[in-house]
């Protein structure tokens, strides 16, 4: 079996470039039509999506196009045109959830491989066989499936590729089969417009139907985020997953998350995969790096544990935390300037987080200093200056002035600082 694929989210063209630079073998993305991430899908037009596919192929990587929504009857003619148009761009796969859409895609574009979305909830080899018979090449397993069950699927269907989510947001409902957003705001989760209502704080009431009395149930110390699921983080279990020998692709969730999130998760899982094949796996290292991202608390989900064995998958206190580090700036694609994302100050040592397999050399000039300390590359500014020569004492987020770097850095490098506390 060849090395496992690392599949990263590409919510827009910039994030696609970052995912590839930070070590993804493949990315998944889509335009808004029939994609389960309408918000991120709007980042791509048909024209820019074709450009993104060409860019990905030029870098020797793959792009999987998401067509994983559940269409209504009135949308089928538009869906047919959409499949035909995207197929002409030659993506490496369609990610599809509905059986009817699989049949339609196979009819219109038989040359494009079909990957079955996790929304199809495949848990057994019986269901997997049905989809395989329909022409599906890969199944993106249900979030609730166990690794042992995936081993059984592979045993019965050795030709079928298996993909699993290893990181990202988890749904309170069964693999996205949730109607809370639809009930409260009319935004339908299975059509890509979920408002994440499960993340909100709620107050519970008890109603006495005989008297009409309404009692507010006092909240406990656990808090009021009663439906808020922690984020999935299987970095410590990558060795166990790959030891099974049945997984073809590790997938990271997060098309609507930040560029930093895409870069860090991709680079960390790339490191974990490479360390595994080099017999140098170090779970603590990956955990520490992923803790720098914003998250809802982490859980290892259900792949390596049965749901009834878990009691730590909910974060009842808050919907999101800051993580251990804050991104302060992002380097431009050409590596000559950076844009502030928080507060950029003089004479402060910031960590440099660079794309995979890239390094730099120490240097110093009148703009600033690049140096290595404790195994990490760092940068300190002596001068905050724009390309036109305008000088600042400090830069805050929202300032759109590009700031000149002391030297050219790898494109899409991040500057970050540890959050005090």
UniProtKB/TrEMBL annotation:
Keyword Glycoprotein annotated: no
Gene Ontology BP, a term: proteolysis
One Pfam family from the record: Peptidase_U32
EC number, as in UniProt: 3.4.-.-
Top-tier EC class: hydrolase
UniProt keyword list: Hydrolase, Protease
UniProt cross-references to PROSITE patterns, sorted A to Z: PEPTIDASE_U32 (PS01276)
Family matches, as InterPro entries: Peptidase_U32, RNA/ubiquinone_mod_enzymes
GO molecular function, one term: peptidase activity
Family affiliation: Belongs to the peptidase U32 family.
Name assigned to this protein: Protease YdcP
Organism for this UniProt entry: Sulfurospirillum diekertiae
């Amino acid at each position: 079996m060849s090395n496992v694929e690392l599949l990263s989210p590409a919510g827009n063209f910039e994030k696609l470039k970052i995912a590839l630079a930070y070590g993804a073998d493949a990315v998944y993305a889509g335009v808004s039509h029939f994609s389960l991430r309408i918000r991120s899908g709007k980042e791509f037009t048909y024209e820019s999506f074709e450009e993104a596919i060409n860019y990905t192929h030029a870098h020797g990587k793959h792009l999987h196009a998401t067509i994983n929504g559940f269409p209504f009857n009135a949308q089928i003619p538009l869906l047919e045109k959409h499949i035909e148009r995207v197929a002409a761009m030659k993506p490496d796969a369609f990610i599809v959830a509905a059986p009817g859409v699989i049949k339609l895609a196979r009819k219109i574009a038989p040359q494009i491989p079909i990957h079955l979305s996790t929304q199809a909830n495949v848990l057994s080899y019986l269901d997997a066989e049905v989809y395989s018979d329909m022409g599906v090449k890969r199944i993106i397993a249900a979030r609730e499936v166990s690794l042992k069950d995936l081993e059984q699927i592979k045993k019965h269907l050795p030709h079928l590729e298996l993909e699993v989510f290893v990181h990202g947001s988890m749904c309170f409902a069964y693999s996205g089969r949730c109607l809370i957003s639809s009930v409260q705001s009319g935004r339908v989760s299975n059509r890509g417009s979920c408002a994440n209502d499960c993340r909100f704080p709620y107050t519970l009431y008890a109603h006495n139907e005989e008297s009409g009395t309404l009692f507010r149930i006092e909240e406990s110390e656990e808090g009021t985020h009663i439906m808020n699921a922690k984020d999935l983080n299987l970095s410590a279990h990558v060795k166990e997953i790959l030891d099974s020998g049945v997984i073809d692709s590790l997938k990271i969730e997060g098309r609507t998350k930040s560029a930093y999130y895409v870069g860090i998760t991709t680079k960390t899982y790339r490191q974990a995969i490479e360390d595994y094949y080099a017999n140098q796996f170090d779970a603590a290292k990956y955990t520490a790096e992923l803790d720098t991202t914003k998250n809802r608390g982490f859980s290892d989900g259900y792949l390596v544990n049965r749901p009834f064995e878990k009691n730590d998958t909910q974060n009842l206190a808050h919907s999101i935390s800051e993580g251990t580090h804050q991104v302060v700036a992002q380097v431009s694609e050409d590596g000559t300037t950076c844009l502030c994302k928080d507060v950029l100050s003089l004479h402060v040592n910031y960590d440099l987080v660079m794309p995979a397999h890239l390094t730099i050399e120490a240097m110093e000039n009148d703009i600033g200093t690049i140096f290595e300390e404790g195994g990490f590359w760092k940068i300190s500014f002596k001068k905050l200056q724009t390309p036109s020569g305008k000088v600042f004492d400090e830069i805050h987020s929202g300032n759109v002035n590009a700031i000149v770097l002391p030297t050219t850095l790898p494109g899409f490098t991040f500057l970050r600082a540890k959050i005090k506390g």
